[in-house]
Amino acid sequence: MLISAALICQTVLVGIAGFAISVSAKRWANGIIYGAAALVCLTGLGIALASISAPSALTLPLGLPWIGMHFRIDALSAVFAAVVNLGGAAACVFAIGYGRHEQFPQRVLPFVPAFLAAMNLVVLADDAFTFLLSWECMSLLSWALVVSHDRTNENLRAGLIYMAMAGLGTLALFATFALLTGPGADFTFAAIRSHGISPALSGVVLGLALLGAGSKAGLFPLHAWLPLAHPAAPSHVSALMSGVMTKVAVYGFVRIVFDLMGPVDWRLSIVVIVIGAVTALLGVLYALMQHDLKRLLAYHTVENIGIIFVGLGLALAFRSSGLIAAAALAFTAALFHVFNHSLFKSLLFFGASAIQNATGERDMDRLGGLIHAMPQTAFAFLIGAAAISALPPLNGFASEWMVFQAAFQSAALPQWGLRLIIPAAAAVLALSAALAAACFVKAFGITFLGRARSDASSSAKEVDRTSRFAMFALAAGCGVAGIAPGLFTNLLRPASQMLTQAATPFATLPAPLTPIAASHNTYNGLVVALGIAIAAGLIAAVVKAFANRRTRRSDTWDCGHPEINVHAQYTAGSFAQPIRRVYAAFVFRARETVQLPPPCDLAPARLETSLIDPVWKLLYAPVGRSISVVSGRLNPFQHLTIRYYLGIVFVTLVVLLTVLAIWP
Amino acid sequence: MGPFDIAHFLAGLVVLLSFALLYQDRLPPLINTFAAQSLVLALSVAWQAQAQHAPHLLITAGIEFCFKTIVIPLVLTWTIRNLKIHRTVEIVVSVGPTIIAGIALVGLSMGLMLRAGAGIGNLAHQDMAFALSVVLLGLLMMVTRRNAVSQVIGFMSIENGLVLAATGARGMPFVVETCVAFSVLVVLIVIGIFLFRIRERFDSVDVALIDSFRGER
Question: How far from the centroid of its chain's Cα atoms is residue A262's Cα?
């Protein structure tokens, strides 16, 4: 039984966590713990891949008495379990080298295997109780990782906001499952699936699922915690949170909306598409404004989650109108992007953490020139940056191309509203893809090119071998998934068949992408890769043949400034300035002020920029104020005498009994 | 008289004694009334044991009789004599409104059980209504009294209501019943010690006096 094997893996992970508690202060603990966890994750990956076409289920007599805990691995869980375990294995391998630099390994070491187990259990759960329990464990363990690493005030604040957001999300999921379960007491997914949900409630359930899963995934306007909390954790955990935990949240949404809710009205799909598109655009715009490398990556997670949700929204829209081939395409595109994003986001976070280890810096304006000191990291980071910017022949292009192909099918939809909104959403996605490319030109250029902007940056050393191995493995994954995407979409076919009653055509080697049928558009990654290689080779040959080979030495053009120092280079801020002026002036109220010193004062002039995330002012601040007002009003209730408390209990009881007595 | 008539007679008597508890404003008669209520309850449980052919209910009746009719009243009487408060008279809310409120509560329980207990048979739901009345009247007593001893007696009469409900509804598991009985004993011990401590500090057992001594205000 595959499910038993998968559960044994999770037990082993929990055992490793327990072992880590006792030995985490030892020097040798790091390699053993992470090595063992990586092996278990690889086993879990194998089990997940094997159970894509062979679902299995198991009920354990644990948890609530008479209810037990139900576990099941079907095509959908298997896909997400594969993503979780692949990301987990990569993070553990990376951490074997990276974790040695950890200042307090005992604060991090025990939590990581337990966190991996919790994420796996969310994916394997087959009843509401197990799902919510694992979900909450996942939240709490990741919270512990955020706050335990580095006890600065900033991190504690990030942890507090994350805790509040996670609590809100779990509350919303509780309500979701309460509505889905209905008056009966059977919490298993099979029972929920069999009785479905009334159309009147489906809007509420979808909204709550968006709130619950979306707050964990980082959907607008619930994304505000994510760029604070993800960078605050140690870097391999940032990679896990950004690359894997957000995917578990996507799994929660897919499980609830596509599987448990049954048919969904097309009007509701508009909500998903619009929220996804807004999330994608705002995420990338905000990322462009950042100069902290890890925070930039975290905002890009927000963007990619937006893309995934647009794909899911398209699948909902097509499925409600019976266009199952298009629905399968959109759904496969979303799942494929889930997989791809977990690959390149983990890779990029590893790169950022390698840089942080080598230089102690996360601020791009203090980096630069690292391509000389860390050429291998630079190459791997470049692959990841090209993949996330959706450049062919890498995997980011393949999945985003599929999302666009799905959007082009919208002309066949009968509803005018969708036919207008889907192309608009596709245009927004195109804009955000272009902005993402700009953003990673900035991230790579400022960090790795030019000259070092600080001493730490100029004295950097390449990271250790295992860390590089993890990065190159992921980079190779990005390449393979881009060149032969069909190999991966084939694995998604059972899940798509299960939830949209159709699947994209089966791809044989060299595994091109065929969205609907071979007669329509296809994308052959191998041909594109060969084309790029031949074109690049030709250009190199031509340049080599015809360029002037005579070596000349002279000063470069200094823009009229004879004194050149490293601070005269382009910075992250200057790179983002045009985009900040065009877009962010309205969205983020970006303001630039030049402060000139008074005459005869030798102080330097300063250019100050400020950004405001609108959700803080428009959404969170009013909520915070109202909570403060309400709690202020309720404060006297803390100081009543015992007879008043008894009286309150008594009056409440009598009122409830009266309501029960006269209720029609 | 059939078996159910006698069960009803005894349950009604328990409710009536609850009203008597509400009415009593001196402590010794209050304790005596509580002992009487417990005695009637023990009789009622014993009758149910005979009527339902459930011998384990006889043990329940025995516990009721030993503890609530004899031990607890004796301990309470000894306590108030030692505290020298057996001659005090306490009036918080005047008796008339309290009794009217009590009657309204009994009406509420009847109305509620007529609806909620529609499926369980005519006689069983009247038993439940009596039991709920006893619980609510005990709670009313705890709310209206200020003396710690009367609050303890209110609490114990709530427990009497629970036992009445449990035996009416075909008996509760014996383990639960014993647990409840022991919890009442523990409450007696804790509250007894507590009473002496309050008395030592404040020269009174009026719980309102303690309120000004709480921290974090």
Answer: 26
> Across the interface, do A646 and B208 touch by the CB < 8 Å criterion?
no
The minimal CB distance from B140 to the residues A641, A642, A650 is found for A650
Number of C-alpha atoms within 13 angstroms, CB side, residue A338? 33
Judged by CB atoms closer than 8 Å, whether chains meet at A650 and B139 is answered as: yes
- Confidence class for position A524, pLDDT limits 50, 70, 90: confident
Per-domain residue ranges of chain B: 3-213
Within chain B, residue ranges assigned H as helices are 3-23, 27-52, 56-63, 72-83, 95-116, 122-144, 148-168, 174-202
pLDDT given for residue B34 in this prediction: 92
- The answer to whether ipTM exceeds 0.90 is no
d(CA A413, CA A416) in angstroms, rounded, equals 8
Q: Whole-model pTM? A: 0.79
Instruction: Please tell me which of the candidates B105, B143, B214 has its beta carbon nearest to residue A643.
Output: B143
Cα A586 to Cα A285: distance, rounded to the nearest angstrom: 12
Residues in chain A: 664
Please give, rounded to a whole number of angstroms, the shortest distance from the CA of B101 to a CA of chain A: 11
Distance CA(A487)–CA(A491), nearest Å, equals 7
| Interface touch A661/B112, C-beta < 8 Å | yes
Strand partners, A610: A591
A interface with B, Cβ–Cβ below 8 Å: 639, 641-643, 646-647, 649-650, 653-654, 657-658, 660-662
Q: What is the CA radius of gyration of chain B?
A: 18
Give SS3 for A607: strand
Give the helix/strand (H/E) hosting A59.
Answer: strand A56-60
Query: Which residues in chain A are contacts of B142 at CB distance < 8 A?
Result: 646, 650
Sign of dihedral through CA atoms B153, B158, B161, B165? negative
Residues of A in contact with B105 (CB under 8 A): 654
Contacts of A655 in chain B (CB under 8 A): none
Question: How open is the CA angle A478-A482-A486, to the nearest 5 degrees?
Answer: 120
The strand pairing partners of A125, in sequence order, are A71
Amino acid symbol at B30: L
Determine whether the interchain pair B139/A641 forms a contact, defined as Cβ–Cβ distance below 8 Å.
no
Alpha-carbon gap, residue A578 to A488, rounded angstroms: 39
Q: What is the pLDDT of residues A393-443, one digit of tens each?
A: 898 999 999 999 889 888 888 888 888 899 999 999 999 999 999 999 999
| Residues pairing with A70 in the sheet | A59
Which residue does chain B place closest to A664, by CA atoms? B115
Q: Which residues of B touch A662 (CB under 8 A)?
A: 111
Q: Say if the Cβ atoms of B208 and A641 lie within 8 Å.
A: yes
Closest by Cα among B94, B186, B195 to B149: B195
List the one residue out of A321, A317, A522, A336 whose CA is nearest residue A422. Answer: A317
Distance CA(A274)–CA(A100), nearest Å, equals 44
CB contact under 8 A, B207 and A647: no
Give the CA dihedral A10, A343, A487, A216, nearest 10 degrees: 60
User: Distances in Å between the alpha carbon of A501 and those of A8, A283, A319, A410?
Assistant: 32, 33, 9, 18
CA-CA distance, A88 to A95, in Å (whole number)?
A: 10
CA quadruple A271, A275, A276, A277: dihedral sign: positive
For residue range A621-644, list pLDDT tens digits in order.
888 899 999 999 988 887 777 777
**How far apart, in whole angstroms, are the C-alpha atoms of residue A655 and residue A650?**
9
Residue of B nearest to A663 (CA): B115
At residue A39, the pLDDT reads: 92
